[in-house]
Amino acid sequence: MEQDLANVKYVGPATIKRLAEHGVTTIAQLAGMSVDALAALPGIGDNTAPLIIASAQELLAVPPAEEAEIAAVETEVVDELAEEIPAEYIVVVAEPELSKKDLKKAAKKAKKAVKKALKKAEKLEKETKKAARKAEKKVKKAEKKAKKTQKKD
Protein backbone atom coordinates (compact mmCIF):
# COMPACT_ATOMS: atom_id res chain seq x y z
CA MET A 1 0.00 0.00 0.00
CA GLU A 2 1.61 3.20 -1.17
CA GLN A 3 0.87 6.39 0.73
CA ASP A 4 0.40 9.78 -0.82
CA LEU A 5 3.02 12.55 -0.45
CA ALA A 6 0.25 14.77 0.94
CA ASN A 7 0.39 12.67 4.14
CA VAL A 8 3.91 13.95 4.85
CA LYS A 9 3.99 16.85 7.30
CA TYR A 10 5.16 20.19 5.86
CA VAL A 11 4.36 19.04 2.29
CA GLY A 12 1.51 20.85 0.58
CA PRO A 13 0.22 20.85 -3.00
CA ALA A 14 2.87 23.32 -4.23
CA THR A 15 5.68 21.28 -2.67
CA ILE A 16 4.27 18.05 -4.13
CA LYS A 17 4.34 19.71 -7.57
CA ARG A 18 7.97 20.88 -7.10
CA LEU A 19 9.02 17.43 -5.88
CA ALA A 20 7.37 15.79 -8.90
CA GLU A 21 9.23 18.19 -11.21
CA HIS A 22 12.46 16.86 -9.69
CA GLY A 23 11.45 13.19 -9.99
CA VAL A 24 10.30 12.62 -6.40
CA THR A 25 6.85 11.02 -6.47
CA THR A 26 6.85 8.59 -3.52
CA ILE A 27 7.34 8.84 0.21
CA ALA A 28 10.17 6.29 -0.07
CA GLN A 29 12.05 8.52 -2.52
CA LEU A 30 11.51 11.51 -0.26
CA ALA A 31 12.63 9.61 2.85
CA GLY A 32 15.78 8.47 1.03
CA MET A 33 16.89 11.97 0.06
CA SER A 34 19.68 13.75 1.88
CA VAL A 35 18.84 16.96 3.74
CA ASP A 36 21.19 18.92 1.45
CA ALA A 37 19.58 17.56 -1.72
CA LEU A 38 16.07 18.37 -0.49
CA ALA A 39 17.07 21.83 0.77
CA ALA A 40 18.54 22.58 -2.67
CA LEU A 41 15.07 22.34 -4.23
CA PRO A 42 13.31 25.70 -4.66
CA GLY A 43 10.86 26.58 -1.88
CA ILE A 44 12.34 24.15 0.66
CA GLY A 45 14.71 25.65 3.18
CA ASP A 46 17.47 24.29 5.39
CA ASN A 47 15.13 24.27 8.40
CA THR A 48 12.20 22.52 6.73
CA ALA A 49 14.14 19.86 4.79
CA PRO A 50 15.10 17.72 7.83
CA LEU A 51 11.53 17.95 9.18
CA ILE A 52 10.07 16.77 5.87
CA ILE A 53 12.52 13.86 5.64
CA ALA A 54 11.87 12.86 9.26
CA SER A 55 8.12 12.91 8.65
CA ALA A 56 8.49 10.79 5.50
CA GLN A 57 10.70 8.30 7.34
CA GLU A 58 8.16 8.10 10.16
CA LEU A 59 5.42 7.27 7.68
CA LEU A 60 7.51 4.48 6.23
CA ALA A 61 8.23 3.16 9.76
CA VAL A 62 11.30 0.98 9.37
CA PRO A 63 10.49 -2.61 10.45
CA PRO A 64 12.31 -3.84 13.63
CA ALA A 65 14.39 -6.33 11.59
CA GLU A 66 15.91 -3.48 9.57
CA GLU A 67 16.57 -1.47 12.74
CA ALA A 68 18.56 -4.40 14.12
CA GLU A 69 20.47 -4.64 10.84
CA ILE A 70 21.29 -0.91 10.96
CA ALA A 71 22.46 -1.24 14.57
CA ALA A 72 24.67 -4.18 13.56
CA VAL A 73 26.24 -2.16 10.72
CA GLU A 74 26.75 0.78 13.07
CA THR A 75 28.43 -1.46 15.66
CA GLU A 76 30.59 -3.07 12.97
CA VAL A 77 31.74 0.33 11.70
CA VAL A 78 32.53 1.53 15.22
CA ASP A 79 34.51 -1.65 15.97
CA GLU A 80 36.39 -1.34 12.67
CA LEU A 81 37.28 2.27 13.37
CA ALA A 82 38.28 1.50 16.96
CA GLU A 83 40.86 -0.97 15.70
CA GLU A 84 42.37 1.48 13.21
CA ILE A 85 42.28 4.72 15.20
CA PRO A 86 44.37 5.52 18.29
CA ALA A 87 42.21 6.29 21.34
CA GLU A 88 43.32 9.92 21.60
CA TYR A 89 41.69 10.69 18.23
CA ILE A 90 38.29 9.16 18.95
CA VAL A 91 35.47 11.58 19.75
CA VAL A 92 32.00 10.26 20.59
CA VAL A 93 29.09 12.36 19.37
CA ALA A 94 25.38 11.52 19.67
CA GLU A 95 23.62 11.72 16.31
CA PRO A 96 19.97 11.39 15.34
CA GLU A 97 18.91 8.11 13.76
CA LEU A 98 20.22 7.83 10.22
CA SER A 99 19.53 5.57 7.28
CA LYS A 100 21.96 2.81 6.37
CA LYS A 101 23.31 4.90 3.50
CA ASP A 102 23.81 7.93 5.75
CA LEU A 103 25.51 5.78 8.40
CA LYS A 104 27.97 4.43 5.87
CA LYS A 105 28.59 7.91 4.50
CA ALA A 106 29.16 9.32 8.02
CA ALA A 107 31.51 6.46 8.93
CA LYS A 108 33.49 6.99 5.73
CA LYS A 109 33.69 10.72 6.40
CA ALA A 110 34.83 10.16 10.00
CA LYS A 111 37.44 7.65 8.88
CA LYS A 112 38.73 10.11 6.29
CA ALA A 113 38.92 12.91 8.88
CA VAL A 114 40.86 10.69 11.27
CA LYS A 115 43.29 9.65 8.54
CA LYS A 116 43.80 13.30 7.67
CA ALA A 117 44.43 14.18 11.33
CA LEU A 118 46.91 11.31 11.68
CA LYS A 119 48.73 12.37 8.53
CA LYS A 120 48.91 15.96 9.78
CA ALA A 121 50.22 14.79 13.17
CA GLU A 122 52.90 12.67 11.46
CA LYS A 123 53.89 15.63 9.29
CA LEU A 124 54.19 17.90 12.33
CA GLU A 125 56.26 15.26 14.11
CA LYS A 126 58.63 15.03 11.11
CA GLU A 127 58.94 18.81 10.94
CA THR A 128 59.68 18.98 14.67
CA LYS A 129 62.42 16.34 14.38
CA LYS A 130 63.88 18.16 11.39
CA ALA A 131 63.92 21.46 13.28
CA ALA A 132 65.58 19.75 16.27
CA ARG A 133 68.31 18.28 14.02
CA LYS A 134 68.85 21.68 12.42
CA ALA A 135 69.14 23.33 15.84
CA GLU A 136 71.66 20.65 16.92
CA LYS A 137 73.76 21.37 13.83
CA LYS A 138 73.73 25.09 14.59
CA VAL A 139 74.80 24.44 18.19
CA LYS A 140 77.67 22.19 17.04
CA LYS A 141 78.72 24.78 14.46
CA ALA A 142 78.65 27.53 17.08
CA GLU A 143 80.70 25.37 19.51
CA LYS A 144 83.21 24.61 16.77
CA LYS A 145 83.47 28.30 15.91
CA ALA A 146 83.89 29.18 19.60
CA LYS A 147 86.73 26.62 19.96
CA LYS A 148 88.40 27.96 16.83
CA THR A 149 88.14 31.52 18.16
CA GLN A 150 89.56 30.38 21.52
CA LYS A 151 92.57 28.75 19.84
CA LYS A 152 93.34 31.99 17.96
CA ASP A 153 93.37 34.01 21.20
UniProtKB/TrEMBL annotation:
One family name in Pfam for this protein: HHH_5
Highest taxon of source: Bacteria
A GO MF term: nucleotide binding
Residue span of region Disordered: 121-153
UniProt xrefs under Gene3D superfamilies: 5' to 3' exonuclease, C-terminal subdomain
Composition skew (Basic residues), residue ranges: 135-153
Sequence ranges of Basic and acidic residues compositional bias: 121-134
Protein name: Helix-hairpin-helix domain-containing protein
Naturally occurring in which organism (per UniProt): Thiothrix lacustris
